[in-house]
Amino acid sequence: MLLDKTGHLIHIDFGFMLTDAPGRGLRFETAPFKLSADFVQILGGPDGEGFRRFRNSMVSGMQALNKHSAKIILLVQMVAAAQSDLSCFTGGTKEAVDELKERLCPLGIDRKLSKGDCERYIDQ
């Protein structure tokens, strides 16, 4: 993740976001995203104001990604068609797109994520 000077978080690891996970294909992560106990502590603990703001921001971000998932998936499909040899497609372009769909639309491509859905993912 990249944090810019205005506090925006920017995902810069497209390989990890798609299929090129650390360990070259070893997939140990089962949670939708990684949230360490240290990071929760830095945010003031699970009941802290910082963590509450983080949760609200995560919910907003997850819902925005879900809302625009069709456009994001189309963009990745276009890149994959033109540049299938990129390292982020190591596992295959179809697999990368399918896995991205599952992460952006965990309840299915036609179902939108509610606030409660997002909070359950954060709590995993």
TrEMBL record:
Keyword Transferase belongs to the record: yes
InterPro entries from the UniProt entry: Kinase-like_dom_sf, PI3/4_kinase, PI3/4_kinase_cat_dom, PI3/4_kinase_cat_sf
Under the heading PANTHER family, the entry gives: PHOSPHATIDYLINOSITOL 4-KINASE BETA, PHOSPHATIDYLINOSITOL KINASE
Q: Please state what the protein is called.
A: PI3K/PI4K catalytic domain-containing protein
- PI3K/PI4K catalytic domain residues are 1-124
Its keywords, alphabetically, are: Kinase, Transferase
Q: Which PROSITE patterns match?
A: PI3_4_KINASE_3
Q: What are its GO cellular component terms? A: cytoplasm; membrane
Q: Which GO terms describe its molecular function?
A: 1-phosphatidylinositol 4-kinase activity
- According to its UniProt entry, this protein's organism is Favella ehrenbergii
